[in-house]
Amino acid sequence: MSKTGIRQLGVQYNGALWEIRVWAPNAKNVYCMLYNMGVEIPLEQQAYGYWYAESDLIRAGDLYRIRVDDNEFPDPLSRSQPEGVHGPSQAVDLAFSWTDQDYQPPQQSDFIIYELHVGTFSSSHDFDGVIKKIPYLKNLGITAIEIMPVAQFPGERNWGYDGVFPFAVQHSYGGASELQRLVNACHEAGIAVILDVVYNHVGPEGNYFAQYGAYFTEKYLTPWGDALNYDDRFCHGTAGFGSQQCTDVV
């Protein structure tokens, strides 16, 4: 995928370097601010409002913010928000040692689905608590769990439908690595995993998307908040959120 690949926005490790991609079409300059080292990494402007940089200075676990002109914000496409929706973002290496290569999901006609709220399902209120109760789910005859939304939201536990960081797994639940461990454990137990996701809106608190670009549109109305811009002008910055692909690059 090209350096402006929509699905690669944010800060990601490619196995050798860290790639930083931001969509901020109206910005005059963009920097990645590394808190741990007090370093500013300048991003180069590319076509259609994208900004890009590569760096070997970042380490997994480093905290950062994105500076757009004179203002600093969390990265709305971050993979981790350890200090909540208003805190700095965190660079994470998503490499994981999967052991479920032989897993075969049951036929969908055989699915017996347990809808599961990670924050309330166990006494520890996290992914590890769910893992420890997999035998309980097996004894019930469950063949698939449906996890309610876990995109980073304000606070430590709620329904998850007001998430504001679509690609950051809720930190109080254990973050991305613990979600990976849960999926792996479920597959080893013969249980499929369905993830409930929200891609038509984001919540109000901690929503920094509008500080970057035209992520929202008035073309549609939702009862939950501003509609994400999938097919209005300048929609190319948002097209990777769902299945639709925007062709407008005006």
Strand and helix layout:
Blueprint: E1 10-13, E2 18-23, E3 30-34, E4 39-42, E5 44-45, E6 50-55, E7 63-68, E8 71-73, E9 89-90, E10 113-116, H1 118-121, H2 127-132, H3 134-140, E11 144-147, E12 151-152, E13 165-169, H4 175-188, E14 192-195, E15 216-217, E16 227-228
Parallel strand pairs: 10-11, 11-14
Antiparallel strand pairs: 1-2, 2-6, 3-4, 3-7, 5-6, 7-8, 7-9, 12-13, 15-16
Would you write up a description of this structure?
Keywords: Glycosidase, Hydrolase. InterPro entries: GH (IPR017853), GH13_cat_dom (IPR006047), Glyco_hydro_13_N (IPR004193), Ig-like_fold (IPR013783), Ig_E-set (IPR014756). Residues 8-72 form the Glycoside hydrolase family 13 N-terminal domain. Pfam families: Alpha-amylase (PF00128), CBM_48 (PF02922). GO terms for molecular function: 4-alpha-D-(1->4)-alpha-D-glucanotrehalose trehalohydrolase activity. Strands 3, 4, 7, 8 and 9 form a 5-stranded antiparallel sheet that branches. A 4-stranded antiparallel sheet has the order 1-2-6-5, with no helix packed on it. The protein contains 4 helices and 16 strands. Residues 1-7 and 242-250 have low confidence and may be disordered. The two termini are 21 Å apart. It is globular. A hairpin with a 4-residue loop joins strand 3 (30-34) and strand 4 (39-42). The chain has helices at 118-121, 127-132, 134-140, 175-188; strands at 10-13, 18-23, 30-34, 39-42, 44-45, 50-55, 63-68, 71-73, 89-90, 113-116, 144-147, 151-152, 165-169, 192-195, 216-217, 227-228. By secondary structure, the protein is α+β, with helices and mostly antiparallel strands.
